[in-house]
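As agreed, record copied across for absentees:
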Amino acid sequence: MEHSATIVVYSTSWCGDCKRAKMVLDSMNINYKLIDLELHPHAEEEMLKVNGGIWRVPTIILPTGKVLVEPSVNELLAALEGRAA
């Protein structure tokens, strides 16, 4: 996957961790590209590539290329603030 200036969030509608991650991003007014795997199943292949073949959401790709998989709120905040998670 190419690096971009946008955060990419692979998600589903039923995932509690996904809802929490989106709430954090929204509360910080951070723009992100949401890819709902239920609506865009073709994107699953991309998500699996960055997860080493493991199906887990949320998978969040930061503009730096760093990948967060099912991050806690603290891990997500630390990554967004540029601190080690």
Q: What stands out?
A: The CA atoms of residues 62 and 71 lie 12 Å apart.
